[in-house]
């Protein structure tokens, strides 16, 4: 058994479940990508930052958009810049390597001592995108046609991939990844998470706020249920504005909409739905 | 012993492969999870299960497997080797078998299989008698999938099972059976049609070269608007009765492929198109829309996709007042033709298998009304439909 150099664990600001820790460590040990899914706002992206920090590696983030091509992660050949330079008669135009722009994957491969590469929201891209990256992620190498060189990772980077489930990922891709689904935290875990961010928070305020938060999540028919990041925003507001726990308790007792609810409920229809629900049923606690 | 888990998962329909199994073994070797059942569970889950929809199934299999692991005693009994081979046949495709051999693990794998059979055999009374008695599985007590027993059964039944399995596998490649939504989405994707609209912010390389050449070799950049998807789809679904399952599938399919279209509007009808359509599939009175209104609202550049089994009485199509639900002033046929005059590009997707179409008069009639543009709900059918709609 080889000794594991570094292990990922919960940190002061990031509360990770045991299952997540095991999944991350398995991905680190076997150098296979880790695919992380879960409701928006459950800390998928933050996870990469925390993993990078706890392993002491640099974090490279590749934000995927609907227009992103797999090739852009490897490299791009800036033909226009070269054409322009040739017009100006610059010396560097003779070496094509000057016009190869490195992508995130290349940068991660190049980093001595390894790196953490976050491929964020892979499901945003085209359906074929994951397939186009299969070989590169498997072998951690690729070929640059323009310069006839092979780029190979000296130390395989730790690859974290997040998905919001907008598209289904191909089986061949899934088979190459470890998989973890971040579940929505339960009350106790959520309390721990809030505490990690607001160490001085009063216990009563935390309890009241969490009660309202989970009550809000239970309102049926909401388009976007508030998640961890929204709760933290809301808590920040409550703290800044010195909202007393009594105020929240009154809110709950009188079936009112909680103060600064705009940081948790973010569209008009949901707001109407919430008001209507509270009018007829009140807070279920 | 982890091989048990692997086989159990496969038997329960979780698509694990040898590669993932080796990942689990590798992680165990590296000491990711040591001497801790819970950690092992998390590790197994992370490596063997790649879809949250299967997590629950994984949990159940894991629980059954774990219970069995705890109950195992020390057994020994000879098992005829051909059973093992049959079992291997049952679980692996040729490709996978080759892979196992390549990894040098087939013998070891068989060895473990053998051991397992020994364990199971011993735990059952009477040793050799457990095979196929009254169809109750010797593994049943341990929560093992019933498919497993067939190794012990006399040839024919086992072989038949394998054949059925093989055939289905084969038909998948054929492209004529319903396939996973991903493949369907890929088919629907061909509907995309790009046109250039909006601000010129993309470099037009060909035009740049041409203008540069005209400009005596000095660079002259040309830009053009970005290509955008301009396909609008009007989806009309037959709801009520036997169609509901299929309609659900099609609806999911199109809304999942939503990003491939510039707009997607869904309406519902029952059996045949008449003077009104519904906005929701509950077909409530309030959510109705006049079909004329529909045709006025959505321009002729929309592509119309009708989904229905087209199986009804002929009079429901041909006669005024033929509808089973209400009094229609004009026949369904008239409405269909009106719709098709308005929308040049249309296709009817029929979940009924196409080899049955000739035997139902109404299907044949609708197909003639559509000018032959009726397609089965299969991969090849969808591809043909998208090709038609694209043109």
Given the helix and strand composition of chain B, which structural class is it?
alpha/beta
Give me the strand/helix succession of chain A. Answer: HEHEHEHEHEHHEEEHEHHHHH
Shape of chain A: elongated
Number of DSSP E strands of chain B: 9
Q: Largest interface, with Cβ-Cβ < 8 Å?
A: A-B, 36 and 38 residues
Number of helices of chain B: 16
Q: How are the strands of the biggest sheet of chain B laid out side by side?
A: 4-3-7-8-9
Largest sheet of chain A: 5 strands, parallel
Give Rg of chain B in angstroms.
29 Å
Tally of individual domains of chain B: 4
* Backbone structural class of chain A: alpha/beta
Overall geometry of chain B comes to: flat
Can you lay out the helices and strands and say which pair or pack?
The complex is a heterodimer of chains A (285) and B (391).
Chain A: H1 18-30, E1 34-38, H2 44-55, E2 59-63, H3 70-74, E3 75-77, H4 79-88, E4 100-102, H5 104-110, E5 116-120, H6 129-132, H7 134-139, E6 141-144, E7 149-152, E8 158-163, H8 171-175, E9 178-182, H9 187-197, H10 203-218, H11 228-240, H12 245-253, H13 268-280
Parallel strand pairs in A: 1-8, 1-9, 2-5, 5-8
Antiparallel strand pairs in A: 3-4, 6-7
Chain B: H1 2-11, H2 18-29, H3 37-48, H4 55-71, H5 81-91, H6 94-102, H7 106-123, H8 155-174, H9 181-189, E1 194-203, H10 205-214, E2 223-229, E3 232-238, H11 244-256, E4 263-269, E5 276-278, E6 288-290, H12 291-297, E7 303-307, H13 315-318, H14 332-342, E8 346-350, H15 361-369, E9 374-376, H16 379-390
Parallel strand pairs in B: 3-4, 3-7, 7-8, 8-9
Antiparallel strand pairs in B: 1-2, 5-6
Helix pairs in contact in B: 1-4, 2-3, 9-16
């Amino acid at each position: 058994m080889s000794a594991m150099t570094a292990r990922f664990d919960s940190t002061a600001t990031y509360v990770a479940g045991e299952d997540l820790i095991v999944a991350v460590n398995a991905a680190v040990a076997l150098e296979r990508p880790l695919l992380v899914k879960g409701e928006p706002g459950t800390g998928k992206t933050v996870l990469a930052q925390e993993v990078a920090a706890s392993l002491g590696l640099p974090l490279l983030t590749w934000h995927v958009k609907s227009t992103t091509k797999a090739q852009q992660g490897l490299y791009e050949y800036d033909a226009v810049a070269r054409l322009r330079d040739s017009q100006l008669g610059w010396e560097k135009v003779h070496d094509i390597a000057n016009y190869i722009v490195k992508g995130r994957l290349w940068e991660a491969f190049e980093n001595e001592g390894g790196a953490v590469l976050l491929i964020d929201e892979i499901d945003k891209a085209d359906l074929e995108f994951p397939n186009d990256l299969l070989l590169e992620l498997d072998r951690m190498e690729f070929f640059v046609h323009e310069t006839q060189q092979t780029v190979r990772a000296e130390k395989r980077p730790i690859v974290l991939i997040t998905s919001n489930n907008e598209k289904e990922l191909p089986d061949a891709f899934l088979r190459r990844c470890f998989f973890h689904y971040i579940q929505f935290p339960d009350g106790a875990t959520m309390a721990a998470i809030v505490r990690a961010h607001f160490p001085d928070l009063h216990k009563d305020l935390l309890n009241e706020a969490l009660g309202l938060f989970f009550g809000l999540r239970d309102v049926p028919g909401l388009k976007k249920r508030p998640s961890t990041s929204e709760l933290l925003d809301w808590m920040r507001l409550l703290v800044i504005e010195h909202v007393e726990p009594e105020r929240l308790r009154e809110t709950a007792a009188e079936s009112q909409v909680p103060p600064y609810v705009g940081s948790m409920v973010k569209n008009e229809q949901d707001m109407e739905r919430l008001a209507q629900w509270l009018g007829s049923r009140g807070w279920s606690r | 012993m982890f091989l048990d888990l692997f086989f159990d998962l496969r038997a329960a329909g979780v698509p694990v492969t040898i590669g993932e199994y080796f990942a689990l073994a590798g992680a165990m070797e590296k000491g990711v999870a040591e001497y801790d059942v819970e950690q092992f569970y998390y590790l197994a889950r992370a490596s063997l299960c790649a879809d949250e929809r299967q997590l629950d199934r994984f949990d159940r299999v894991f629980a059954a497997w774990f219970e069995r692991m705890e109950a195992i005693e020390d057994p020994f009994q000879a098992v005829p080797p051909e059973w093992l081979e049959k079992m291997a046949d049952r679980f692996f495709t040729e490709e996978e078998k080759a892979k196992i051999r390549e990894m040098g693990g087939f013998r070891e794998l068989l060895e473990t299989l053998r051991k397992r059979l020994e364990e199971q055999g011993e735990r059952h009374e009477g040793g050799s008698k457990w095979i196929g008695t009254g169809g109750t599985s010797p593994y049943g007590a341990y929560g093992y999938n019933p498919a497993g027993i067939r190794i012990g059964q006399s040839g024919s039944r086992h072989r038949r099972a394998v054949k059925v399995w093989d055939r289905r596998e084969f038909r998948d490649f054929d492209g004529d059976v319903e396939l996973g939504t991903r493949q369907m989405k890929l088919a629907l994707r061909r509907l995309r049609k790009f046109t250039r609209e909006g601000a010129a912010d993309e470099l037009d390389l060909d035009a740049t070269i041409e203008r540069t050449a005209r400009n005596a070799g000095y660079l002259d950049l040309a830009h053009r608007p970005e290509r955008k998807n301009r396909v609008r789809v009007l989806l009309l679904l037959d709801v009520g009765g036997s169609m509901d399952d299929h309609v659900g599938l099609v609806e999911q399919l199109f809304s999942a492929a939503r990003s491939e279209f510039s707009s997607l509007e869904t309406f519902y009808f029952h059996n045949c198109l008449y003077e009104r359509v519904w906005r929701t599939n509950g077909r409530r009175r309030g959510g109705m829309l006049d079909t004329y209104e529909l045709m006025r609202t959505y321009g002729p550049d929309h592509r119309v996709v009708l989904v229905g089994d087209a199986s009804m009485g002929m009079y429901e199509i041909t006669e005024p007042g033929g509808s089973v639900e209400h009094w229609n002033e004009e026949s369904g046929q008239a409405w269909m033709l009106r719709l098709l005059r308005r929308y040049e590009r249309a296709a009817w997707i029929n979940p009924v298998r196409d080899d049955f179409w000739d035997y139902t008069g109404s299907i044949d009639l609708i197909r003639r009304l559509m000018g032959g543009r009726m397609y089965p709900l299969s991969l090849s059918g969808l591809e043909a439909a998208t090709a038609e709609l694209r043109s």
